[in-house]
Amino acid sequence: MDPQGLTDTARARISNYINKENNKHMSRLVVVGYDDPYKAEEVRLKLRKLHSEYLLDLEDVVVAVKDEKGKVKLHQSVNLTADGAVSYGFLGSLTGLIFLNAAGATGSGALTDVGVNETFMKELSATLSPGSSTLFVLLRSATPYRDRVLEELKGTGGKILKTSLSHEDEAKMQAALSAAR
Description:
By secondary structure, the chain is of the alpha+beta class. 49% of the residues lie in helices and 19% in strands. The protein has two domains: 8-77 and 118-178, no CATH class; 80-114, no CATH class. It contains seven helices and five strands, in the order H-E-H-E-E-H-H-H-E-H-E-H. Strands 3-2-4-1-5 form a five-stranded antiparallel beta sheet, with helices on both faces. A hairpin with a 5-residue loop joins strand 2 and strand 3. The two termini are 31 Å apart.
């Protein structure tokens, strides 16, 4: 195990996943671990706010919590890629889904196939300490508002466990997370 508490197997799986994500599209994955079971959710709410203000282009944000018994629970929100389609098409589609259950099942299944892989998140989170949480962030693209985003994340704590960001961006993000508020 390394200082971040990851086994060699977990580290290899993370690297493989990031390589697949990078080759699929230009998304950037950031995985941050917290010693507190509630902190990842608190940070996710900040990221969602930044996304709603168009300061971040989030593709997916998921929180994993490892309880004191060692069980991992994923807290997934509505996939951000589908937010626009869901919010604008919801009312028109609702009537159609009521009458076309088969179409509804097909549509909902497709939504689960985008974003961060569930198996990957559970495997990584299982390697962490009980009573901790992990934040998985998939950014669709870089933001021109990096300084504002880093300011919002300043002092939230956490340790970057893995990322596909450049070393320079990773260092800036870790500095912001670790900075005093």
